[in-house]
Design brief:
This protein has 421 residues and is of the alpha/beta class. It has 16 helices and twelve strands. It is globular.
Length: 421
């Protein structure tokens, strides 16, 4: 095979527990071809379908159809999806991966493969089961999510990809004193795959080292067939330290008050920034969607105001030290940091799925706006491009964003994987 044809070769992959497609977006950018996405949440599946349409329309010089959808005030996603070959929509499999659905999912993927081979499997089981907070709230042994990795292994056995990428939260390293991680690594080995030799069986990677303006740590396990002579890739650190969340990431968006904004298209308030261009977040479009903030009661807004004032002095707000009239929770010993300001002068703390419940942990750094961050702002902190549309309600969009792998981080990982393959 010539060098040119090798460069053009599409490498096929399956994305398991795909969420809203953040990990997949990075691999598509790096030249990989998605054969199937498997995800149990319907809103997340709808988001992937819409993004799948975007990529097909863009590749076929019909991007205006997608832009018209974004600008439409009465969005009909089924009508949008009808613009692409139906098998692309069918390749997004809205099913929970379980013992009873496994054979059916295999059949659906086989139909999409049409005799081709899978080069790569990516994804990671829902992370709440391994999170430290999740462990505090639930009996770990009885949580069925702890054993979802077994189905990931079944996909490795069935499709025999050259490599795999398994993503999860750092809590998986200490869950049950490391027992769950060892079970995963042993199962991978028994399936015929190798990971880096001890002590580098896994790697904790931070999104901030990939140019994302967020301190977000993830365990990324990369494995390959035993007959391949590979090792864990070395990732060049691309620091975002020269950029800040407020000036470089959010300042071009229209200022909002609590409860303001729209899911529909609105014009940018300021010109593009160097960081937004570099991170592939803002393109040539003149508008952005889903810049909408949640409403707050007066008590919360007063706390937000106080939190930003404290932050401007270099201090985090301690909930227990608020004036008595503002304290509504009886628990004053734990979660005293339940109100946190996004660091506008640096990078953000981790965006998590709890942002779907309330925005107290993600207060906008601009005191004049006095609110929690909007859907679009959360998506930008996760490095999603502005033309990435999250289907479902505002709450559903926040949940999808909080659970996602930052596409910019995923792209850098994918580029290394492509080199290795």
């Amino acid at each position: 095979m010539t060098e040119v044809s090798l460069c053009m070769k599409k490498l096929n992959y399956i994305d398991l527990f795909a969420g809203a497609g953040g990990l997949s977006e990075g691999f598509i950018r790096a030249g990989f071809n998605p054969i199937a996405h498997v995800e149990m949440n319907k809103d997340a599946c709808d988001t992937i379908k819409t993004r799948t349409v975007y990529h097909w329309l863009k590749e076929n010089n019909k991007e205006q159809i997608y832009n018209d959808y974004l600008k439409s005030k009465t969005k009909n996603k089924e009508e949008l999806w009808s613009n692409v070959p139906s098998h692309l929509i069918d390749s997004v499999i809205n099913k929970e991966i379980s013992e009873t659905t496994l054979s059916e999912i295999f059949c659906m993927i086989d139909r999409e493969l049409k005799g081709n081979k899978i080069d790569l499997i990516i994804g990671g089981p829902p992370c709440q089961a391994y999170s430290i907070v999740g462990r505090a709230r639930k009996n770990m042994e009885n949580d069925p999510r702890n054993h979802l990795y077994q189905y990931y292994i079944e996909f490795l056995k069935k499709y025999r990809p050259k490599m795999f990428v398994f993503e999860n939260v750092p809590g998986i390293l200490s869950a049950n004193n490391g027992e769950y991680l060892n079970k995963i690594l042993n199962a991978v080995k028994n399936a015929g795959y190798e990971v880096s030799l001890p002590p580098n069986k896994y790697k904790v990677l931070n999104a901030k080292d990939f140019g994302v303006l967020q301190d977000r740590k993830r365990v990324i396990i990369i494995g390959w067939k035993k007959e391949l002579d590979l090792s864990y890739p070395i990732f060049e650190v691309i620091s975002g330290e020269n950029y800040t969340v407020w000036k470089d990431l959010l300042s071009d968006l229209k200022p909002l008050k609590s409860g303001e904004g729209t899911l529909n298209a609105v014009k940018y308030a300021k010109p593009n920034t160097e960081y937004l261009r570099m991170a592939n977040i803002r393109h040539d479009s003149e508008f952005v969607t889903q810049h909408i903030s949640r409403p707050n009661n007066q008590n919360d807004l007063e706390i937000y105001h106080t939190a930003v004032e404290e932050w401007s002095k270099g201090k985090r707000l301690n909930y227990a030290e608020l004036p008595e009239r503002l304290i509504k929770h009886s628990n004053r010993e734990s979660f005293t940091n339940r109100f946190q300001v996004v660091n506008g002068n640096g990078i953000s703390h981790t965006i998590v799925a709890h942002i779907a419940m309330d925005g107290h942990y993600y207060i906008h750094p601009d005191k004049a706006q006095n609110r929690s961050i909007s859907v679009r702002e959360a998506a930008r902190i996760q490095s999603f491009p502005d033309d990435y549309f999250f289907e479902g309600s505002r709450t559903a969009a926040f949940k999808q964003i909080g659970n996602a792998v930052p596409p910019l981080m995923a792209q850098r990982i994918a580029e290394k994987i492509r080199e290795m393959l």
